[in-house]
Queue: 2 jobs
Job 1
Amino acid sequence: CTKDKTQKRSCFCVFFVRKNKGKEFEMEKITGSYNPFEGRVTNPISNMKASDVRIDYSTFIHEIQHLHFNLFSVIGKIIEVLRIERKWTPETDGSHRIQIEDTMNILCESFRGLQEIYANSMELLWLADYLGSETAALVYEKKSGKYKDYSRKFYGLIKENTDLEEKRQLIHRLCVQAAQPDMTEIELAELLTDDGRLKEYFKGAGNME
């Protein structure tokens, strides 16, 4: 994930391209990104067809998973609600917009690791489903740095010779549970009004990774 000049967070995934048959994949370019402040995937691959699946489509699948996870998890839904509130807050109410953005930044930063665990795992399952387990394994081995760490969380499960859909559902369920704050709705609402307490919560009991 990177920050642009306005501090809005976007999550990027680099895809792999096989330049010559039998040679290694190389990190080539960014083909998509998910921006939680805008609630959309930008720069999607055009003309994606199920009959012409390529390895670089996994980037698009990866980014879509960020949006998908937001819509199914408590923290993700809160981010979506704040995004809409920010959008419809008048520019003249600058202090409120800043408060919304500060809270969103805390949530997005705290949620980022779990988001990447989810998206990388679902990407690898998609590759295994459409291009085979060997391709998924190769992409996993070529992931770099923190993305390799994110992918490693569920890679033991992904490698198992079991039903792919069952693995998807299990990973989805575990990640959704991890994004469920252990408190009442009233306690959560109160926590969201105090950025200091919110930061401390996610550093400790609320750590989602």
Note: Residues 1-31 have pLDDT under 50 and may be disordered.
Job 2
Amino acid sequence: AKKILELIGIEDCQGFPSFEISDVQVLFTKTISACLCLDNFHYAHKILAKMHEVELQPSRECLELFALAYAQSSLALKARKTERKFRGEKDSVMNDSVHKATKAYKIVMTLSDAKIHPNVVVKVAKACGRAGLFSKARMLLRILHKYAIEPGEETLRYDPIVLQGMKCTHSFLLRQCASQGNTTAAIWFANDIQRFGKRMAQRKVDA
């Protein structure tokens, strides 16, 4: 990690782990992951820019790390906003929360055809929902529903992890609609969830 950081002009590498990895792409990805774990988006983006400079394409895993980090940061910012509101303090983080949720959403959408990990989609959908970006959250929910279907087939694949993630996302998004008073979005999600439930029921009958 220190060698990669030195490449982008960073001399203070305190707090960053050392990696003994020969694969350059993996080394870049691990270093980006270390930066994002420290919530240092600036360094992470500088490393990503260096990858492009040396004509090294970021892997799907690398971009997933960015999406996940942006989503987690957005959720944390929104939670901080709620605490400040409860204490009667002025809010100064909502725009940043929306910005980071939007960043995460855009990354997921660029990777949606590459079978991005469902857990990443779940986290980003929650971030969008909590930030009030319900149309984006709905699009991500539909991607999750699609992931439960084998490519080229209409039969649903029973994946307990994927399905559990969907159920948690369903309830989370509906709660956000209620807490933010958005009845239109609640109807969107209710309809999508109902349609998905019918397909699940049909799968059980066919089995």
Note: Residues 30 and 160 are 29 Å apart (CA to CA).
